[in-house]
Amino acid sequence: MPKLRELPVTDTDCVLPVRFWSAVDVWIKKPHVLNKRLCGVKEEDYKEVNGTELEHILSVLWGVSFDQLKDIIFYLNNGDECQSQPLDTENGHWCYEVRTIIPKVNSYGTQMHKEIMLKDLPRKRVTFLPFEESADGDCVFRKTNVYQIQLNNLNNDEWSISISTLGGNDWFSDGVVYPRLSWLGDDLLPRLVRWAMDSQTSEFKSTLSLLPIEKYGPLYQELKAKYREIVKVWPEVTDPEKFVYEDVAIATYLLVLWEEERAERGLTSKQSFVDLGCGNGLLVHILSNEGYPGKGLDVRRRKIWDMYGPQTQLEESAIIPSDGFLFPEADWLIGNHSDELTPWIPVISSRSAYSCRFFVLPCCFFDFSGKYQRRRCRVSQYREYIDFVSEVGSVCGFQVEEDCLRIPSTKRVCLIGRTRSYERHKEAQIEAHRSCFISSRAGVSANDAPAVDQPRPGEYGDGAGWGRGFQPRQRTEAIRNCASLPRDLVERVVSQVALALLSLTSVEGSGGDTWNRGGSLTLREVAELLDKDKLLTLKNECGGLQTLLKNNHQVFTVVNGRVSVRDWRVPAGARKSKPGPGSRRTVTEARKTRPCWFHAHHPQGCPLEPENCAYAHGEMDLRPANVPHWRKRDM
Fold first, then answer.
1. Third-level CATH fold of 272-440
2. Residues forming a β-bridge with 132
3. What pLDDT, in 10s, does the model give residues 311-335?
4. Strand order in the sheet with 313-316
5. Cα–Cα distances in Å, from 104 out to 213, 214, 224, 405?
6. What are the C3H1-type domain coordinates in residue numbering (predicted)?
7. pTM of the entire predicted model
8. H helices within 353-426, ranges in order?
9. Are 45 and 225 in contact (CB under 8 A)?
10. How far apart are the C-alpha atoms of 605 and 603, rounded to whole Å?
11. H or E element that contains 572
12. Does residue 427 register a pLDDT over 70?
């Protein structure tokens, strides 16, 4: 039994055996967290068996030959006697599990790859037996790819976790369902050790727990390829990689969920939907493009809306929770990062129609009016808020289900209300309960400190109805990134901070360099240089002083909380980080369109020659800024 690798583990808390099985379960149930070429697995069977039952299962149900079975028995017993003998027949000695491995890209046709996991609980080891199953149900056992993970007690609190194989030099690898030997030892084993030593448990469910993973994976890859071109033409300042693929993943989730619902309910028509607070509208565009009738509403129009075409229905409208904003024709209401609308969506759904369902992906923490106020300190704020929205759904009469999406976001727990907990004739009783609950929250939400700017009186109507007190955001988004600050204020702060940094060193630099690069200060020390009025103005901006300094990247660098004067002689590769999602102009387009601060204000001028500096050395060197081609259509 060749041993690939063994890693020592210290266990002073005497809990490692329990955590070992938890770590093994992560690899069994969620191998995609480590093997990025997998979409996941489908768990198919689990039972506790004795040795006789296990031999019967392998030989009769899985077609393992007599000689192969002898080798397996020898391998399973090899931890102690190193000789062939019958398997232990004690009841509950073995845990038998089966999983189907689902790759992201299926290049195997109708052939399925299955694995039997045999947990030997007393001897703390699990053996993986791979099988290839054809569409006709014929199974082939891959003896060469059998491997085993084992926890070994060395001495008191000293342990080790090892991986061994049965196949040896005959091991086959495709890097997907059959990992390389080196990967098992260098990647899987260290991660198992880390998982075994991690005492934290997640507050949330595993990802995609409500869906058949074998349907989600292929559909996600299909939609990702279909809509990836949107990344190249994304006109917003947000990161296209994140937002496009996040909405593709959410759309995939809904499409699979709705397909399962149609099959369960015997429906033939595709579900209709309304996306409340649809933002950039991409989720609406994908769902509509896939044949689902629906529309999106948002208080503010986005540039990208014009790119979708007439088949994507998007409306600029402030949504006020009231009888005027009910959607009895919609099968589903969607709240994807819907902010202040989030707790209202189950309410609007429940009052729209008995058949109306909801899907909500909470992000920012809002109550029915204003910010959500914490009440429980023993759980995270996110967990508490998810529980609150779930409570709202339950009060509204839904059997609320929770799931975790696979999206590039820290806020990825969704809540789904697809069934009611009461019969239709009890609607009046549930409505009274709903109304009472909403009224009881009036003193809990932070009306005195709203998280959104208050609209002008009468801008959205009087708010009459059951949503009284709710304040939608303004149609015009407030710019609070220091870009709208008075230019003279910005120039005074830049000059004051830069001169303070230059005063920290002498002009004599190392190696004969006489250009003064100045010293560095922490952000706190920089803040102490400014008077209270300037600091108060900056505090009203997102990011405050740090944002202002980063906006003036021509003059400053801000790294790990320390501010320095930028030296443009440093090679670009060592200085320039990855450009932000809004950085679309090339270096050629930006050259000489702004004056050089160092040429005008540094005591020794700019360290670069005029032809090498991207900024203008004087009026004669200044050229007009070109309008990038991707913005011309918005003018």
1. Rossmann fold (3.40.50)
2. 113, 140
3. 999 999 988 898 889 999 999 999 9
4. 313-316, 294-298, 273-276, 332-336, 357-361, 413-420, 398-404
5. 11, 10, 12, 16
6. 590-620
7. 0.72
8. 381-395
9. no
10. 6
11. helix 572-575
12. yes
